[in-house]
Structures are given as structure tokens and as C-alpha cells.
Amino acid sequence: MLPKLDVLSSEQVEAIHEHSMKILEEVGLDFLYEPALEVFKANGQRVEGDRVYFDREFIEEQIKKAPSQFTLHARNPENDLVCGGDNIIFMPGYGVSFIYEADGTRRESVMEDYDNFVKLAGVSGNLHMTGGNIADPSDVPDEIRHLKMLYSSIKNSDKCFMGSASNRERAEDVIEMASILFGGREAIKEKPALICLINSITPLKFDDYMAGSLMAYAEAGQPVVIAALVMAGSTGPASIAGSLSLQNAEVLAGIALAQCVNPGTPVVYASSSAITDMKTGALSIGNPECALFTASCAQMGRHYGIPTRSGGGLTDSKVVDAQAGYESMMTLLNAGVTGINYVLHTAGILEGYMAMSYEKFVVDDEIAGMVLRYLKGIDFSEDAFAFDVIKKVGPGEHFLAQKHTRKYYPLELRDAELSDRLPYNNWAKEGLDTLQRANKQWQDVLATYEAPELDPAVDEALQKFMEKRIAELTK
Amino acid sequence: MVTQDEINARAKAAVMDFDDELVEEICEEALEAKIDIVSLIQDGLTAGMNEVGDQFEQGTLFLPHVIAASEAMSAGVAVLTPALEAEGGSVKSKGTIVIGTIEGDIHSIGKDIVLTMLKIAGFKVVDLGRDVAIATYVDAVKEHKPLIVGSSALMTTTMVLQMQIEEQLKEAGIRDTVLTMVGGAPVTQDWADKIGSDIYAENATDAVVKCNAAAE
């Protein structure tokens, strides 16, 4: 692995922490969820209305309770993931409502899209888990979407997945489904298998949906990604230092809640912060400022000894074009080199978290493969220096026929999966550009896809639970 | 006593294992056992080479495998050639191709890949090496009477010399006896047309396709 790139000095890390402590002590945060206020009160924090004012000693104490790494379990143990340390976890985009098609049109996403992205991520050699909430299934009633999505995640892949966090009741439903899959509540408490994304409402608020879900996951001993999305210039100061201190305060408050509810709850310190485009007021994510937020997040997490999360292949483009490519490469490579552990939105995102694109997914999958290769660094073993081979070949000859070459090219020279490396005439026979090749590639993958086997008894139990809940929720 | 089929199978496997030393051993054993050399080359060594070539076409093996298999095969052929010539035998080929990197240019890897692929395709290939003087091409055409003479150039400064091959072949009165082929990074179909070369090969696969067409 490569050494991690730091963009902050230790004094700057300390300065962010100090300013966040000041925000937590003097400004406080609103929690629009009574049980959360009760928890903070019980732990000696000053609560006035919805506002919680924190002691810095309390916050610092809670941070220490969070583990520096944890294992997320998959139904196929080969796909278990360690979150933290030098590890990096890639997964699809999260939370979109639209599909942008290769021809530039858009439509609402449906259940089949969700299934498809789980399958594509499940098969990918570069994505480590299938994520969650990838694309909102508009053809499924809102009350039962969380059930259908989680079932798809379980059924269509045997990699790790995320659960719903849209409110406490839905969180309880998906935790129950994970329990059925892994053999009970105690089993998943011991071996966490479900991870969810909790977002603060910047500036300085947690609503009842998010605080409720956070507490449900923490009680069940399941990991929680606690994220702030500051839009520098609108929901936070235009100065990045100010927005960083704001983001840090929100994330630390969320982590403190999780640790109070259940000390030792695995948490991920997360940033999806970026900037406000001052021409339109819209969120803009495919830019160097977003990359700086990500880099700072990685470093603050290292400082606190907590795993970190950021976005991955981020772009503001509406189509899979050069802008989509150059923005996504910058943000994903940056997440990798700065040491982010959990990379949400690695693949598929277009227009600032608004849409998924199948073709963009394939492009990002290739970028992910390139980044993983880059992070692996260079083999410096004596054998890799190949002195004997260099001596044997000598001046003017080539290394193509050497056994050493056959041994090392698969280890050190990554083969492109999407990029075209053909000479002009070979390329010109079909003349396909990246978008066209990506369009063909995802269709080929889905055409040959086979679902991993799921124990029929477990499948039946899951379906029974879903039927019961669907009847209750839609009556 | 070892049979023809056994030794052919072992030679084929050794080529597919890229094991040049083992191929040499097998060929020496074959000579002692008075095995049919032509069959060994065609049904043993070449069969292994073809298998590697097929897997390369399918994308399951890569260039280092093809080149290494070819070198293993060449090692065996080198052991067998004196005996083969002594008994006046010959191995079927689609034709002879003379090939070299042109005068002033020492970039020979591309040329080496092309000649390997042409060998696999069943041509007898005469390698003139690198930095080959124009007169050497002309002499080689006189000596080997090839179907095709190919020159490769990596630089625009050496590419211009490909024109001289055309001219000197004409001066020697043998331009009509042979097809000329040009290749190399700066070379294009337009350049081939301009200097009057018969074949432009963009890369090794292209060279094989076009030489096969010329041999028919």
C-alpha cells in the first residue's frame, strides 16, 4: 500500500478540532428526536428545548469508545470486509431517484434498476460490496421499499450490503431481515452484518428519522456511517476551514449519540461535503474543493482513530462525457490516496447524487480498478528488481519471452476492462467510444449473470417476514 | 522405445509450458530414437504453438506467452535443423518472408513480435535483425527468393529509407519478384501508397492477415 497523502498539518487538524469543540459547547446542535435528547440529558449534557450543548470532555470521551476498525460480515464469508486501517471499500452510488440513459434522456428509477445495480456490483471485481438504496424503486409503494430493496441486496449478491435508515421503524425491519439471514439478533450483534448511512441536516441538526435510525442500529450493534454534507457557501461558510469545523462538530455529535446508546458501536466518520455553485445555488461535487473535504475527512478520522467515508466517482455532468470522466477520476483517486476506508458513490453517479447511469457505472468501475492498482504501489522485493533477468537479456534485446515477465505482468501490469488500447485501424473497425463500449459491457454482464445460491429455508423465512410486514404496512 | 505420438505429445506440452530447455531435450531424444523429424515439428512443436496462438486470439493468453512459446519452438527447431537438412527433408510453409528493422533504427521489438506471429501463422521467416542496410535487404531477396520482404521503422527519420528499398529492388531488377511490406509506429497506409509498397501492416495481427492473403 502507498503511504497516505496528508493535506493538513497536525496544527491544522488540532485547529479544526478546537473550533468544532467551541461550536459544540457554545452553539450546540438541535436533535428533533425526544429519545436522543433523553440520552444526552442522562449523560449530563445541557439540553434546552431541542438544543443540546456539549461538554468537550464528554465528546472526547465518546470518540475514544468507537473502534478503530471492525469487520462487516457477508453471507459468503469470503466477502467479509474489514473497515478501517489500510483497507478501502468500494460500492455503488446511493440514494438517487433517476436513471440517465445513454441517449441523454432521463426517467425515474424502478425496482429492476435496483436489482440490476446489485447484480453489476456483485459481479464486479473492483467493487467490494453492493451498497444500498442505490436507486429509489418508484414502482414500489414508499412504505415497503426498504423491504424490497434489502431483499434484492440479499438475493442478488453474496457481498456485504447496506440497510435502510429512513426512520426507526424501517431500520427495525431491515435489522430483523438481517437477523433472519444471519441466525438471530445475537448473531449479528456479535458479527455485524448491516451498515447504514446517517446524515445530519447541516447546519447543526439531526432530525427524528436520522436520529431514530441511528439509535436503532446502535442498539442492535450494527455499524453506522455518520455523515455531514456541508455545501460550502450556503449550508456552511464559503471558507473551507469554517465548513470543516462545522462538519466535524456534526459528525462528532452523531458519534457521541451512538456511543452513549451502545458503547463500542462501530461508526464511520463521514464527509459528503462539497460546494455551492454560486451561479445556480446548486450542490456541486465534482471539484477539487470536494476532494479537499474528503482528504481532510480521512485525516480527521486518522486523528480520532475512527474509519472514514467519503464519496467516490463524483461528477456534476448529466452525461457520460469527458467531464464525468475527469471529475470522477479526481474524486475517486483522491479518496484512495488520502486513505478513506469506505467509499460510498464509487460507481454510477451523475449530476451530484441525483442520478445513476449504467454506462457511468461501468466507467467508474474501470476507474476503481485503476485506483486499486495505483494504491497497491510497487513491488520492491529483490525478485522484482530482476537483476538476473536484466543481465541475461542484456542491451538491445527484449523481455517478452522471459519467465520473469510471465510471472510479473499479471501481478504488476493491470489489464484494462473498458479502456481501449487498440491501434487505430483495429479500433476503427467498430469505432466505439467509451459510452458505446460501456453500454455494451453492462448489458453483456447482465445477460450472463447468475445469482449466488441462497439457502431455500432462509429465503422462505425472509419472504414470510416480508409478506407479513407488507400486509401490515399497506393496509 | 518411445513412439512418435508420445514424443510429439511431449514436445507439444513443452512448447505450451514455454520450456525451451525441455523442448531441446525432447528433440535430442527424438534424434537418437530416429523419430520422424518433420512430424515432430508439425504435429508436436507447431501443434503446441498453434494452441498457444489460439488462446492468444481468444484473449486467455497474452503476448509474453506467445513469444515464449515461439522461442521454445525455435530452440527445438534449431536442434532438429542439421538432421533435417542432412536427410533433405523440409517442413511445409506458406512461403518465405524476409524481415528486418531498417538502417539507422535499432527499435526491433515490434519487428520481433511481427516475425513471431508470422512464424506461428506458418511462414518461414528470415530475420535480418536491426539496423539493416538497404543492400542487405536486396541481397536477402536474391538469396532467399521470398514471397515478401518487410521493413520496420520506428522513427520518421528512418522511415524515409523504406523508399530506398523500393528503388534499390528496382535497380537490381527484382522488384517484380517480391512483395514489399512496411510497418512501424509512424508508418501509415498513405505512406505505403506513396512509396509504392505492396503491404502496410499496422501491427502483428494485421501483418498476419495481409501476408496470409498474399500467400493465397
From TrEMBL, chain A:
The keyword Transferase applies. GO terms for biological process: methanogenesis; methylation. InterPro entries: MttB-like_sf (IPR038601), MTTB_MeTrfase (IPR010426). It catalyses: Co(I)-[trimethylamine-specific corrinoid protein] + trimethylamine + H(+) = methyl-Co(III)-[trimethylamine-specific corrinoid protein] + dimethylamine. It is an enzyme of class 2 (transferase). GO terms for molecular function: trimethylamine methyltransferase activity. Belongs to the trimethylamine methyltransferase family. This is Trimethylamine methyltransferase. It comes from Methanococcoides seepicolus. The gene is mtgB.
UniProtKB/TrEMBL annotation, chain B:
Belongs to the methylamine corrinoid protein family. GO terms for molecular function: cobalamin binding; cobalt ion binding; methionine synthase activity. Residues 94-216 form the B12-binding domain. This is Corrinoid protein. Pfam families: B12-binding, B12-binding_2. It comes from the Archaea. GO terms for biological process: homocysteine metabolic process; methanogenesis; tetrahydrofolate metabolic process. Residues 1-92 form the B12-binding N-terminal domain. The keyword Flavoprotein does not apply. The lineage of its organism: Archaea, Methanobacteriati, Methanobacteriota, Stenosarchaea group, Methanomicrobia. SMART domains: B12-binding_2 (SM01018). InterPro entries: Cbl-bd_cap, Cobalamin-bd, Cobalamin-bd_sf, Corrinoid_p, Met_Synthase/Corrinoid, Meth_synthase_dom. GO terms for cellular component: cytosol. Keywords: Cobalt, Metal-binding, Methanogenesis, Repeat.
